[in-house]
Each structure stands twice: as C-alpha cells, then as structure tokens.
Amino acid sequence: MSLNENKNHNVPESHPRYSSLKYRHKIIEGMKNLVVAEAGLIAHGRGECFDYIIGEKTTKTAKNAIKAALAVLLTAERPVISVNGNVAALVPNELVVLSKILNIPLEINLFYAKKGRIEAITEVLKNAGATNIKGTNEDAMTELSGLESNRRKVNFIAKADVVMVPLEDGDRTEALKKLNKIVIAIDLNPISRTALWADITIVDNIIRVIPEMIETANKFKKLSTNELNQIINNFDNKLNIQKTLDLIIEHITKQKEEAFKILEG
Ligand code: PTJ
Q: 168 CA distance to ligand 1 centroid (A)?
C-alpha cells in the first residue's frame, strides 16, 4: 500500500476519497505554515460541498468559460492573476506554469492580513518556480477605492485591465467591476456574489481548472486575435451560469434516484 507525502497525514491511495483528502491536507499544512488563513479551511469545506453537487468534474459549461477566459487573457493588455492562501496551497506549481505560458504576473492579495503570510506565500510561489510575483511589498501598494477589506491593498492589479480572481469574496469583485476591470472568477458556488458579478465565471474546482487552463492555453496561443475575439463574442456568461445551474439540478436528480435505489434496498 502506498501512502501520500503529506507530513502528518497518511492517507492510503486506495481510499475512495483519496484525492479529496489529499487536498484537504494541503490546506491543513498550508494553515500551519501561515500560507492559508484559518478561515481558509472553512472556505475549502464550502467549496467541497459545491464540488459534490456539480459531480466533482469539469462540466461542459466550465470548459466554455475556461475557453472564454483564456481568449480574454491572451488578448488583454495588462492581465494579472490574483493569488490568495488557499490557491497557493492547492495549486502552486500549476499556477506558475500557467503564468509563464501566458506571460502574466501573479499578485498575492489576501483577505486576512496576518504577519508573515505574504512572505510564506511568496516562498511557496518561488519554490514552485515563479519569477514574476507582485504584491510582495506592502509599502509599494495602493488602495482600490470602494473597498474596506484588506483586499483593497493592490499593486499591479490597480492598473490591470483583466484580473483573474480564484476563490474571491464578493466585495472585491464588485469593487473591481466598478473600476471597469474585466473580472474572471473561479468559484465553485455558481450563485456567489463573485460568480454573479464577474464577466466570466468558471464554476469548477481550482485543482481542475488550472491544469485545464494550461492545456487550453497551449492550444489557444496558436490562434489569431480574430479567432480569440470570436470566442469572446460567442460567450454569454449569464446563459453559461443558467446552464451550470441546470446541470447541477440534473446531477442532483440522478443522485436522488440512486440514493432511493439504495434506501429501498
Ligand atoms: O488567503 P486569504 O486571506 O485571501 O483568504 C482566502 C479565503 C478563501 C479564506 C477568503 O477569500 C474567503 O473567505 O473566501 P469566501 O468568501 O469563503 O469565498 C470563497 C469561495 O470560493 C466560496 O464561494 C467557495 O465555494 C469557493 N471555493 C472554495 N474552495 C474552492 C472554491 N472554488 C473553487 N475551487 C476551490 N477549491
């Protein structure tokens, strides 16, 4: 029996929920290292719950949103990817690969300010090979207007035209939209304020989204600006969210039927 490498958590790979447990433990380790905020554990649990109701897979609507997001990122003038503690703990290597393929900076932006967190996340990203990290120097930061939380403190984001925000809170998404920025959200909750305020909403788990984005980015880099613009113009976020909700209803209906088969013996 082989075991994973998480320091204090020996989860057998044969466990039916191995993957889910592995990521839980990454979040727990991240919390011990200051990378993840205490509330990040709760946010992760909420995410798991939504992941369950989409069937723990990348849906076709998520794939549509991913394609539109990449077309936007590849045609943007000053795009940036915002990084918080949960994201840094879950997918640091993948995030760095994506930022390099797209030639986009990663900006550390935290909801929960705590001494040492920026440094801890910087180290994680540097260890993953990141060379273009913003938001590391608090003295160089400016503030987003219309926002009171710690997320108001930004660096490159202040002048960005497109901001990708994985696992974001609604207030900053709203503030970024009011500043006329194009917002790409990655959020398992299709009806969170972030999901509804964003221009492109990817309803999927960050652990699947970033690898899917890497694969699509490699293909899309060969497309012309006209072809990328066509992808953007053909995407309707409102319709995509509606279809995502329909897929969730479909999935839950099937799950209900399966559950009743078991209940009725
Ligand atoms: O590191 P910090 O200080 O910036 O804090 C980060 C968290 C995530 C703790 C903070 O932003 C927060 O409290 O976020 P919320 O308001 O709980 O929102 C997080 C959203 O992300 C929720 O809608 C979750 O369903 C969703 N979510 C959680 N895990 C994942 C996810 N979405 C995609 N992939 C996940 N793995």
A: 6
What does pTM read for this prediction? 0.94
Q: Are 160 and 80 in contact (CB under 8 A)?
A: yes
CB 28 less than 6 A from any atom of ligand 1: no
- 190-232 confidence digits (pLDDT tens): 999 999 999 999 999 999 999 999 999 999 999 999 999 999 9
Report CA-CA distances (Å) from 88 to 73, 94, 166, 176. 20, 10, 10, 21
C-alpha 187 – ligand 1 centre gap (Å):
8
